[in-house]
Input
Amino acid sequence: MDGADGVMLVYNPGSPAHETEIVIWYDYFVQGLNIGHDNCLVLAHSGNDDGPDKRRPPPPKLEGITRLMTDSHSSTEIQRTFDDLLRSILSRRGK
Output
């Protein structure tokens, strides 16, 4: 994993187990690789068709990272935000 420039994490905000696991993934991939919050994207993805669950706040460790509340109808927003992240990372690398 050496040489990673960015991290994208995905979890279900409606699952307490996922909220616990996403913090573990954050510790391992973001903090462990010393990736800055500006090089991260978190997708809080709801698998239902009722729309993203906007009521639950992110775990405190994820505050300050770009976070999208998504569902099965969010593909355009996901693509746009991922592209923005990638452009930002590449511009910081000078490419």
Remarks:
- The longest strand covers residues 40-45.
- Strands lie at 7-11, 40-45, 66-70.
- The radius of gyration is 14 Å.
- The mean pLDDT is 88.
